[in-house]
């Protein structure tokens, strides 16, 4: 078989080879390191992963691209499985207020918070949203991200804006090297006009929005912000069960601020992920472990909000919950596209080992999007999504934090980022 791309002499080839299931407990540390590794692709698929020289039945010719991995660490492409990619505006004006201790609800009352982003997103044209999101995607690609999840949720009751967000993500998925998986999240906040009758808005989502999103095939998942003062357990249950009828898998913003029972609901419904989980109860975590619900943790949000509260990642792992890690990139609570920085936060603050961290942004991140059979590990037959880090080992990437260690990014078997430039 002919190889179209080969990476040889790799100091640390991290394969994540396994059974294509979310990793739990000790298996989170089983990352399949190969010293002096070699990787070969034919087109967009991996055809060889091993140690030393290529086998004789793999042929190279003058068109084969050969990369030298000496001194490098190679991993699967990183997966950012929770973002609010498509939005208008920014909220740096709130920083000074937050530093002075102004409560979020006061910022909200002054027209800030999510209301500010909703207004900016509604007023932005399709082209403006597209260009802004593309710039963020370019940044993410440079940090080694090859697959990203993108939520709507800044139109809320303005369904046209919700559709616009999803359509922008859909077009970017066609045009950008990064693969985008979309999530419908009109249930991101209760609109002002429905504060006294939130159940009416829930019915609008179920009756009018879900069927149209499904008809247009704009979302794989449906998410709800289940939190005190936002959507109740019962409202969240109704929306997510209705979404499942339209073949949208349920996700849940759960127990971010208060222990409302979101983790328990995610287990009851069988959500693919429950995200945030800063205030999740012991019982909720145990139920998630029983049902195999992935805990998608977002340490950058806790860091940025300076609450001093982080999800109990170590406890979740001990109880057998599969853990993934994401940026939660959004204009309010976590305005960063740097997944490598999030990886360092997960290690330095949440005390995850380097092996647990890389698992959380590769095979478990892929599983958080239902893609673990296609991406997330470097194995024969999987897609050629690969990151070459200019780092001698995995530990160095987390230890030397706040900088970009990426040397080269390969997407679908083609080099798409090298020498700090996107290649198209």
Would you spell out the secondary-structure blueprint of this structure?
Layout: E1 5-14, E2 33-42, E3 45-51, E4 65-68, E5 73-76, E6 78-80, H1 95-99, H2 104-109, H3 113-123, H4 126-142, E7 145-151, H5 159-175, E8 179-187, H6 198-216, E9 221-226, H7 233-245, E10 249-254, H8 262-269, E11 273-276, H9 282-291, E12 294-297, H10 299-305, H11 313-319, E13 323-325, H12 339-348, H13 354-360, H14 363-367, E14 386-389, H15 394-399, E15 406-411, E16 414-418, E17 421-422
Parallel strand pairs: 1-4, 1-5, 6-7, 7-8, 8-9, 9-10, 10-11, 11-12, 12-13
Antiparallel strand pairs: 1-2, 2-3, 5-14, 14-15, 15-16, 16-17
In summary, what is this structure?
With 424 residues, this protein is of the alpha/beta class.
Q: What oligomeric state best describes the polypeptide chains here? A: single chain
Q: Give the biggest beta sheet.
A: 9 strands, mixed
**N- to C-terminal distance:** 26 Å
Structural class: alpha/beta
Hey, roughly how much beta strand do the residues contain?
15-25%
Radius of gyration: 21 Å
Number of strands: 17
The shape, in one word, is globular
| Helix percentage | 25-40%
Mean pLDDT rating? 97
Number of continuous helical runs: 15
User: Which consecutive residue ranges, at least 5 long each, have pLDDT under 50?
Assistant: none
